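This part of the workshop introduces the protein records we will be handling. Getting from the letters to the tokens is the skill we practise here. An example says more than a description, so a record of this kind follows:
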Amino acid sequence: MPPSNIATAADYADAMMIARRAKNVLFFLLLLMLLLQLGTFFVAHSTNWILPDATPSLADTVGPATLPATLPTTQPAVVSDARRMLPAVLRYLTALIDFLGIVLILVLAVVLLLIIKIMLVGRLIGVARVTSAFVWCVFLALLLFPWQAFLQNTDFNGDFKLPGVLFTWSELVHPTAGAKFSSSDFNQSILRWARFVGWPVIALILLLVVQAKSSRGLRAALGESELESPDDMALN
């Protein structure tokens, strides 16, 4: 191979390596955002700590009569202050997840499109897998977008509007449609579990699909994996 062709191939490889590192960072950040959202829901559903107007219980303010003399008397107050701060922390975290979730998925789609452009110009193999990953990434972006906030219908009153995977704070703490739903109504319970757990899990699966397809395509383009037979490519 002439030196000019070798330099061109090396330049393409360097460009794809840079794009791959960016793609992996975006993938792990998006994975973290979705896991944090699931954790926020379970904290909101399993405890009463997210209510801003929650008052400390008697056990938080008054210690037992047999409390040892060596135990600090400020411990209940510290626990109560921490519980009062938790709603503000989770509210900020929910807004941060909504913002970063949309920004990161859009940047990931742009990075995948950049990789496809490099592979098309360089006439490299594996572009079909990366293209498939890009299509799934665009679909995932549509699922993640908080449509309920955009359409001003967080409580689902009036005409039904399909919500996005990323929920807002007002939706999470809503008295009837939020995370603290009653398990007595089976239909509503199924809807809430699907809303707050089912759809985020589906989004996690789609994110893993995007990562797997794009990684396999890049490995093929960089020569890091064996060439697949036409039958294997047809099955995938």
